[in-house]
Design a protein that fits this description.
175 residues, alpha+beta, binds zinc ion, 10 strands
């Protein structure tokens, strides 16, 4: 392989004006598009609603909505507003954060099967709003929580929502 020819730039050349340099601060702004289905889902969350979509062929109601049915391979556009209630499909009581750092109090990630959607259609969120002290106590949480329990979304105030899954603060036990 041929070695590169030429002369490397030195600090001296750069700082003493021996070569032409130009510097500026890049001010780039980015937008990203979540796509039709996820975009409408996020818009719904901002409005305090959980949006699903129906497939006319397999009759499934899916959440989060998607642009096409992965079973029937057909485009979807039958939007449906679902309830903001559901049932615990599964959950965990975690003493570590996403970055593996240790927590002082438990976090309860939960998979919620949303009412009105087809069986197994779930969203991932977290549990909260426990009665005094229970949310800080692993043993009490283990005794309290069971798969199949009804839950309800607790929303942020409308003026604080931004079109994100965190527009739901958490799910609380219902009833
Ligand atoms: Zn389908």
């Amino acid at each position: 392989m041929k070695p590169f020819s030429g002369t490397s730039l030195t600090d001296h050349a750069l700082t003493q004006g021996e070569v032409l340099i130009s510097m500026w601060h890049v001010k780039a702004e980015y937008h990203w598009d979540a796509g039709i289905a996820m975009g409408r889902y996020l818009e719904g969350l901002k409005a305090g609603k959980i949006t699903g979509i129906r497939c006319p062929e397999c009759r499934r109601t899916m959440v989060p909505p998607r642009a096409f049915c992965e079973l029937c391979f057909r485009p979807l556009d039958d939007w449906v507003e679902l309830s903001d209630t559901g049932k615990i499909n599964t959950f965990s009581i975690s003493m570590v954060n996403w970055d593996a750092s240790r927590r002082r109090t438990p976090e309860v990630p939960v998979v919620v099967e949303i009412d009105g959607a087809s069986p197994g259609m779930c969203i991932l969120h977290k549990m909260g709003g426990f009665a005094d002290g229970i949310g800080d106590n692993i043993e009490e949480l283990k005794d309290l929580l069971k798969i199949g329990m009804p839950v309800q979304a607790v929303w942020k105030p409308a003026d604080q929502r931004e079109g994100s899954i965190t527009d739901i603060e958490y799910f609380k036990l219902a009833g």
